[in-house]
Design brief:
By secondary structure, the protein is α/β, with parallel strands linked by helices. Helices cover 44% and strands 15% of the residues. The structure holds 2-phosphoglycolic acid.
Length: 262
């Protein structure tokens, strides 16, 4: 069975003090959810929970996350390991803070900060070489979907991002399908739309690697996920979890999504 994963992407939210409050609440809610009535028909207890705070809260989150059994992710990093790159953060720095994962290729990095496929590829290679697992985001914009380019966009992002990544390294990668038109808009993808894109991604990974590698790859959905809409998406066979922005800022709304994992 594929690994189930639920990721909180806090983006540019939460000071250190707010991070402490979040984990305090999470710690009190998690045991209740774990022993809840729906546990037997969901993946509450075997889901890997990951939280991605801003860089400034990583150190605070690191200790608190461990106490809750939650893994830590960074939201970005530079492709060089060190050097004259004012304002940037490297993979070894993130590892030293206890990060296990790093989110790369997020649509806000691509479209607000104009990161290219080549830069994302360089970051993926460095992260893997440094022992960080990668949550690699791909997804099409609205105009691309409307002009029937969804699959060609995904194909390009996957081919360029994963170029030169070997089979062993691929097992350290999680892919997040995040249609740009669904991120932060409240406009979630239809379950069938998510499934179609996830199936395409798995097929592409099969072509690039092999069937077993593709079958083992966790593919997360992201874009306006909340507890109320995730059950149907999560029931799709190729959806293995979620990357959650807005609804991850409160421990309660984040953890309620866990109860919908199927
Ligand atoms: P959202 O963000 O859940 O607020 O749409 C998801 C993301 O950007 O990862």
């Amino acid at each position: 069975m594929r690994q189930k994963i639920l990721v909180a992407n806090w983006k540019m939210h939460k000071t250190g003090a707010e991070t402490v409050s979040f984990f305090k609440e999470l710690k009190s809610l998690l045991p209740k959810i774990m022993s809840g009535t729906h546990v037997s028909d969901t993946h509450v207890s075997d889901t890997t929970i990951v939280v991605a705070p801003p860089f400034t809260s990583l150190e605070t989150a690191s200790k608190l996350a461990k106490a809750c059994g939650v893994k830590l992710a960074a939201q970005n990093m530079h492709w060089e390991e060190k050097g004259a790159f004012t304002g940037e953060v490297s993979a070894p720095m993130l590892k030293a803070l206890g990060c296990e994962f790093v989110i790369l290729g997020h649509s806000e990095r691509r479209h607000v900060f104009f990161e290219t496929d080549e830069q994302i590829h360089n970051k993926i290679k460095t992260a893997l070489n440094q022992g960080l697992k990668v949550i690699f985001c791909v997804g099409e914009k609205l105009d691309e979907r409307e002009s029937n380019q969804t699959f060609s966009v995904l194909e390009k992002q996957l081919s360029l991002g994963l170029a030169g990544v070997n089979k062993a390294q691929l097992s350290e990668i999680v892919i997040a399908y995040e249609p740009v038109w669904a991120i932060g808009t409240g406009k979630v993808a239809e379950p069938a739309q998510a499934e179609e894109a996830h199936r395409f991604i798995r097929r592409k990974v099969w072509d690039m690697y092999d069937m077993d590698t593709a079958a083992a790859l966790p593919i997360l959905y992201g874009g306006s996920v909340k507890a109320q809409n995730f059950k149907a998406i999560s029931s799709e066979p190729n959806v293995d979890g979620a990357l959650v922005g807005g609804a991850s800022l409160e421990a309660k709304s984040f953890i309620e999504i866990l109860e919908q994992m199927s």
